[in-house]
From TrEMBL, chain A:
Residues 19-75 form the RNA polymerase sigma-70 region domain. PANTHER family: RNA POLYMERASE ECF-TYPE SIGMA FACTO (PTHR43133), RNA POLYMERASE SIGMA FACTOR RFAY-RELATED (PTHR43133:SF25). SUPFAM superfamilies: Sigma2 domain of RNA polymerase sigma factors, Sigma3 and sigma4 domains of RNA polymerase sigma factors. This is RNA polymerase sigma-70 factor, ECF subfamily. One of its GO terms (molecular function) is DNA binding. It comes from the Bacteria. Coiled coil: none annotated. The keyword Transcription applies. Keywords: Sigma factor, Transcription, Transcription regulation. The lineage of its organism: Bacteria, Bacillati, Actinomycetota, Actinomycetes, Pseudonocardiales. It comes from Lentzea albida. One of its GO terms (biological process) is DNA-templated transcription initiation. Residues 103-153 form the RNA polymerase sigma factor 70 region 4 type domain. Belongs to the sigma-70 factor family. ECF subfamily.
From TrEMBL, chain B:
It comes from the Bacteria. The chain crosses the membrane at residues 48-68. Residues 101-130 have a biased composition (Low complexity). Keywords: Membrane, Transmembrane, Transmembrane helix. This is Uncharacterized protein. Residues 1-26, 70-133 are annotated as: Disordered.
Length: 166, 247
């Protein structure tokens, strides 16, 4: 086995769990499986570009793969609706229990870009420089936007708390 | 609320908190698949499946009543279950079709103004062998871009499909596609004739291919879409095998 492949395999093994969590937080399980495979494939093809600290780079690859998958699905859905008689769907999938609906509502009121910064900060535990690598901007811009996004999110949560007080 | 408080609350709501680690051999398989430059095959309930439906959508809308031959291997569909034989009004809404509810309680979608919703009744023909074939008719679909499908589930397929079979498209003529059934997991048929009266836009992007093999599920003579029917692929076949284990 060539040394490079051995190196890639070791690195990729270490990336799998963080990537699975990243995808599980952002899409359904089946799409997450598909996108994980695709992400590893893209990572393999671009392994020469992989930095010594590959996590943020791998998140960026996964982010692009997920965006492609979502675009593709939207196209398919648009096409399907032209083909199929719209129908009553199977009533078998209850919505996943959300442990904190208030937080979900508040996040939904942020712009999608700002909400993603907060997720990358809280869930992936990335710093501004790493977040910048994932979303393709500068660390400085991330710092400013993340600060504002957190402030707005806290404000929304405070509003909720005020509204729930008797 | 401090940043730490916010982060703690976010972490408590982390959707990945309950995610169990992938077994080592599965992780190795994934990485090995990537290093071979070939992504690991998707699971049976893959989200990619809905695209497969499109191809069969043209082909599909169903009916067929007759007798079925063979079916004898471990994975073979069962030949011994009766197909619904009642003739019913043509196709309307079937299970497993696009989910336009956005998670809300589902309702039937009305046809758009100007679209004919008249459903031609199925016709019953007698083949040279004396077997009857019922032909169902597809009506036009409303155009709505905000549609998504749920992941196909074997339990839903098992519960709702009155017919589930593998068939090859024999003939493609304008709006009629004839399918030769080889085996059925459930239901009985040897010929399925599909008539599509929706007009050209409905066929957009998909061409039924004579000679290509499909797996088709139907409930009450209505084809199940959204990943429940499509070209014969291992993942779709696995879904059928799971839904209809050998009894």
């Amino acid at each position: 086995m060539e040394p490079r492949q051995t190196g890639f395999e070791a690195v990729a093994q270490a990336l799998i769990e963080p990537l699975r969590r990243y995808l599980a937080r952002r899409t359904d399980a089946a799409t997450a499986d598909d996108v994980l495979s695709e992400t590893l494939l893209v990572a393999w093809r671009r392994r020469d570009e992989m930095p010594a600290e590959p996590l943020a780079w791998a998140y960026a690859v996964a982010r692009n793969c997920l965006a492609n998958a979502e675009r593709s699905r939207r196209r398919q859905d648009r096409l399907l609706v032209r083909i199929w008689q719209l129908a009553r769907p199977p009533e078998h999938t209850p919505a996943r229990d959300d442990p904190d609906p208030g937080l979900a509502r508040a996040l939904a009121r942020l712009s999608s870009a700002d909400a993603e910064l907060v997720r990358l900060w809280a869930w992936e535990e990335l710093g501004p420089a790493e977040i910048a690598q994932v979303v393709g901007t500068t660390a400085n811009a991330v710092s400013i936007r993340l600060h504002r996004a957190r402030r707005k999110l806290k404000s929304l949560l405070d509003e909720q708390a005020e509204g729930e007080r008797p | 609320m401090t940043d730490d408080d916010l982060r703690d609350r976010m972490r408590r709501a982390d959707p990945a908190r309950s995610l169990r680690p992938l077994p080592d051999d599965e992780a190795r398989r994934l990485v090995a698949g990537a290093a071979l430059d070939a992504p690991a095959p998707p699971r049976p309930a893959s989200r990619l499946l809905p695209v497969l439906v499109g191809a069969v959508a043209v082909v599909a809308v169903v009916a067929g009543v007759v007798v079925l031959g063979g079916g004898d291997s471990e994975q073979a569909p069962r030949p011994d279950v009766a197909l619904p034989t009642t003739t019913r009004p043509g196709l309307e809404n079937g299970p497993g079709l696009p989910d336009t509810s956005g998670g809300r309680p589902a309702t039937s979608a009305p046809a758009p103004p100007g679209t004919s919703t008249t459903q031609a009744p199925p016709t019953t023909a007698t083949s040279s062998s004396g077997r009857k074939t019922t032909v169902a008719v597809l009506t036009a679909a409303p155009a709505d871009g905000d549609v998504r499908c749920r992941t196909p589930e074997a339990a839903v397929l098992a519960e709702q499909a009155g017919m589930a079979f593998e068939a090859t498209a024999l003939k493609v003529e304008a709006d009629v596609v004839t399918l030769q059934v080889h085996r059925a997991w459930t239901g009985e048929a040897d010929v399925v004739e599909v008539r599509n009266t929706t007009g050209a836009p409905v066929l957009l992007g998909f061409e039924p291919e004579a000679g290509r093999r499909y797996l088709v599920a139907a409930s009450d003579l209505k084809v199940m879409g959204c990943g429940y029917s499509g070209p014969d692929e291992p993942s779709l076949r696995a879904l059928y095998d799971e839904a209809f284990p050998k009894r």
